[in-house]
Amino acid sequence: MTRTARRRPFRIAVAGAAALLVLSACSSSESGPSGSSASGSSPGQVSGEVTVFAAASLQDSFTALGKRFEEEHPGTKVTFSFGGSDSLAASITGGAPADVFAAASPKTMKIVTDAGDASGTPTTFVRNELEIATLPGNPDRISSLKDLTAKGLKVVLCAREVPCGAAARKALDAGGLKLTPVSYEQDVKAALTKVELKEADAAVVYRTDVRAAGDKVEGVEFPESADAVNDYPIALLKDAPNAEAAKAFVALVRSAEGERVLGRAGFLTP
């Protein structure tokens, strides 16, 4: 065998290795951090379904952010369960499968953390303030929290164990007022709906919900609301079925874009 013949297999091997390196580099480039974006989501491709349990007052903002998330991450789907934070917390501790929990108060988030169902420490991402929702045009001329105690006025509150109900009670206590509502509702959307359907004259809800209702109600601010501002914490859940996508969704909520969406809805920065 000649020297040239003996070298040929070595050259072929080197060429083959070089080709593999080129292919590997191309593959790495194409499958790089496509999951990263200006929204602040973490690098890496995410896919599949993300299940988010969130306070009813977050419905409009989170729905918008969910659509944005799906656009940024093709192949993902965000499924929401909105309701009273206390009920959602009970579902999570009862074993309901979910990836993310966004509560309307630290107290309801504590139900989840005390049960060991949160991964890491929850982070406050927004705050919310109360407002009175009246019928369009405010026919009863409600201008203060005290006006809600007028005889014959049909007022609705959230249930005491729900964050908006606890906040309303705190505001009433701050004003030294006693109020007996015609009904206690299980979440803030249900309380607001009573006014929208003209089944109640007024309801104490979040100002974000008054804004979302548009011309269906009229909002009345009151100073006692400053004593009852709710912090909203968000957390990745310990047994999240899709932890990577869940982390990316939480990152979007906490990003500058998430802050803009929530700010337009009337939420306050923490």
From TrEMBL:
<keyword id="KW-0479">Metal-binding</keyword>
<dbReference type="Pfam" id="PF13531">
    <property type="entry name" value="SBP_bac_11"/>
</dbReference>
<feature type="signal peptide">
    <location>
        <begin position="1"/>
        <end position="27"/>
    </location>
</feature>
<protein>
    <submittedName>
        <fullName>Molybdate ABC transporter substrate-binding protein</fullName>
    </submittedName>
</protein>
<keyword id="KW-0732">Signal</keyword>
<dbReference type="InterPro" id="IPR005950">
    <property type="entry name" value="ModA"/>
</dbReference>
<comment type="similarity">
    <text>Belongs to the bacterial solute-binding protein ModA family.</text>
</comment>
<dbReference type="InterPro" id="IPR050682">
    <property type="entry name" value="ModA/WtpA"/>
</dbReference>
